[in-house]
Structures are given as structure tokens and as C-alpha cells.
Amino acid sequence: MDEQNAQIAEETNTPTQNDATLLIRIEEMIKTHLQQIDGLSEDITKHKDMLDDIFLN
To answer: How far, in Å, CA of 30 to CA of 36, rounded?
Structure first.
């Protein structure tokens, strides 16, 4: 029983190709989300400027 538990613990602690792939995908998702946030920030600035102009008139 102890040998089986040790083997399971060793398997869960060793990084695999799947872990590397998952890490790369997560990194790509983060970059994509950051690009979307930057784009939305630019849109917000444009809309805020438009609203400010409307309220000034």
C-alpha cells in the first residue's frame, strides 16, 4: 500500500507534456485578455471624451 501511495505521489509531482501545454495555453489566454483590456480602455476613453463634449454643449 505504501509503495502504491508513493508511486501516486511521484506521478502527481512530476511535470508532464500536458502541464507544459496547459501552461502555454494559459499564457496565451492571459495575453489575449490583456490585449482585449487595452482595446476596451481605448474605447472607454473615446466614449468618455464624446460624453464630455456632449455635456459641455
So the answer is: 10
